[in-house]
């Protein structure tokens, strides 16, 4: 190889001649895979650390989406246009954007192959490829263009989020049914946030008396952290919402508007529920490129150290966000906290020093419980609350709704994606007078 791998080198293009057979080859000191929340954030931080010319990012999508706001889009409280910006506007200036899909990662040769025929070699690799949605695993789920007709919606993708709002508006009477799959998910609160908003919308429009609101979840609990689960149980009771645990959506019979759930405690036993509106949270799994590489753990997730975010076998590989096997809830808030740790880890590795800062699993989920209230869940690896504000965050609050709807989007676009927001850790200390 024509370029040596010292800390001082910048970009060095190896063979840029493009013969029709040989792949075009490039080399970067840091290569970032995926231009979602984690990928853009880390490319901004790496640009600051090493200079833009040393960083490249591979991302095929022309648009970048702030997914957390889809909860409000599905309920008609925000427009879908507010959730997206051109990828070109969020890739840090000067950083090379490879507009293609990663097809193969080969950590033994420090190379990545992309869909547009490039072979990119790297000195350090940051994997931020997110997770994969699996709508196709639900038998009978119709083509997306037919969802409005069949009164189905899903806040989990940009193609389907507005269908949720259509289903809400078209609701006349019957069951409003919400599912939670039998897989890891991103933002584990989102499947029930839309349920509370639907309940509120039906009350506002005078239709609640003719509706049953039903939440069928694969989980054995309403929420994974007891403090917030207790608060949510009070809410579902007071609003007459029916919660059924260990129920997994396996089939949709759209023409009859029926949803089929399997009882996970008694496999093979199914229940058919007629619906007037169905909100689907799809099964999710590891990114297929990660799963098919040597970087994956047994389940297919990127195998990283839970404290440093460095890969467990390849020390020049790092991971952030939903694609990893970090045992915490997959959220953009977690990405923020991870980004400052990873920044520190990489800066240490570059100096041949030992990473010294540890990720505590911080994650956060603003549980929207109405059009003007939120319970702000924040917790760590141990499932213990790790709250920023010196108030009881398990209470529904207007201020937290304002944070979710108005403050956090700004923090995302102007703080996180620019590499300036590393989570609320330092502020938590100040808010609690240095006691937390
Ligand atoms: C409805 C909903 C509500 C949510 N609510 C919240 C919330 O309230 N708070 C919160 O903190 N988080 C929330 N989240 C979760 C949050 O959006 C994600 O956890 C976060 O975006 C994860 O960032 P990421 O970079 O790991 O993945 P993503 O942001 O999903 O980015 C992955 C990127 O990888 C790209 N990619 C995939 N495959 C390839 C490939 N082969 N080659 C190149 N690129 C590829 C994708 O195009 C994508 O851009 C919510 C998510 C949803 C869907």
UniProtKB/TrEMBL annotation:
Cell compartments where the protein resides: Mitochondrion
Main location: mitochondrion
Alphabetized InterPro entries for the sequence: FAD/NAD-bd_sf, FAD/NAD-binding_dom, Sulphide_quinone_reductase
Coiled-coil stretches noted in the UniProt entry, renumbered to this chain: none
UniProt entry tagged with the keyword Transit peptide: yes
Required cofactor names: FAD
Entry EC number(s): 1.8.5.8
Top-level class of the enzyme under EC nomenclature: oxidoreductase
GO cellular component: mitochondrion
Protein keywords: FAD, Flavoprotein, Mitochondrion, Oxidoreductase, Quinone, Transit peptide
A GO MF label: glutathione-dependent sulfide quinone oxidoreductase activity
Keyword match Oxidoreductase: yes
FAD/NAD(P)-binding domain residues: 28-141
GO biological process, one term: sulfide oxidation, using sulfide:quinone oxidoreductase
Entry function: Catalyzes the oxidation of hydrogen sulfide with the help of a quinone, such as ubiquinone-10, giving rise to thiosulfate and ultimately to sulfane (molecular sulfur) atoms. Requires an additional electron acceptor; can use sulfite, sulfide or cyanide (in vitro). It is believed the in vivo electron acceptor is glutathione.
Protein family (similarity comment): Belongs to the SQRD family.
Protein name: Sulfide:quinone oxidoreductase, mitochondrial
Annotated source species: Salmo trutta (Brown trout)
Protein's gene: SQOR
């Amino acid at each position: 190889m024509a370029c040596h791998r010292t800390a001082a080198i910048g970009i060095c293009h190896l063979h840029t001649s493009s013969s029709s057979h040989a792949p075009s080859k490039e080399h970067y000191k840091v290569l970032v895979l995926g231009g979602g929340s984690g990928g853009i954030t880390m490319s901004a931080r790496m640009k600051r650390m090493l200079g833009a010319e040393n960083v490249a990012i591979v991302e095929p999508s022309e648009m970048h989406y702030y997914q957390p706001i889809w909860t409000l889009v599905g309920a008609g409280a925000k427009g879908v246009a507010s959730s997206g910006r051109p990828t070109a506007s969020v890739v840090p200036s000067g950083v090379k954007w490879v507009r293609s899909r990663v097809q193969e990662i080969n950590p033994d040769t420090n190379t990545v192959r992309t869909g547009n025929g490039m072979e990119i070699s790297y000195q350090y690799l940051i994997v931020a490829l997110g997770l994969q949605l699996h709508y196709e695993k639900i038998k009978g789920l119709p083509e997306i263009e037919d969802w409005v007709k069949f009164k189905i919606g899903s806040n989990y993708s940009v193609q389907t989020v507005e269908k949720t709002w259509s289903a809400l508006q078209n609701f006349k009477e019957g069951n409003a049914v919400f599912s939670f799959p039998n897989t890891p998910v991103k933002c584990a609160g989102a499947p029930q946030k839309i349920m509370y908003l639907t309940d509120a919308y039906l009350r506002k429009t005078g239709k609640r008396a003719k509706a049953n609101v039903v939440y069928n979840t694969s989980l054995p609990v309403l929420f994974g952290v007891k403090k917030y689960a207790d608060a949510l149980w009070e809410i579902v009771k007071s609003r007459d919402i029916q919660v059924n645990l260990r129920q997994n959506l396996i089939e949709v019979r759209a023409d009859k508007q029926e949803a089929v759930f399997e009882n996970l405690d008694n496999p093979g036993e199914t229940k058919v529920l007629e619906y007037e509106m169905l909100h689907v949270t799809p099964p999710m799994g590891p990114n297929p490129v990660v799963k098919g590489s040597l970087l994956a753990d047994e389940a297919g997730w990127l195998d990283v150290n839970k404290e440093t975010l460095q890969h467990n076998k390849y020390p020049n590989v790092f991971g952030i966000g939903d694609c990893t096997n970090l045992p915490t809830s997959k959220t953009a808030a977690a990405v923020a906290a991870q980004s400052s740790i990873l920044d520190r880890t990489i800066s240490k590795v570059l100096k041949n020093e030992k990473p010294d800062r540890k990720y505590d699993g911080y994650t956060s989920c603003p549980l929207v419980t109405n059009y003007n209230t939120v319970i702000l869940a924040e917790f760590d690896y141990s499932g213990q609350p790790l709250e920023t504000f010196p108030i009881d965050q398990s209470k529904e609050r207007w201020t937290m709704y304002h944070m979710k709807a108005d403050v956090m989007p700004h923090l995302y676009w102007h703080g996180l994606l620019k590499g300036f927001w590393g989570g609320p850790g330092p502020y938590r200390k100040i808010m609690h007078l240095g006691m937390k």
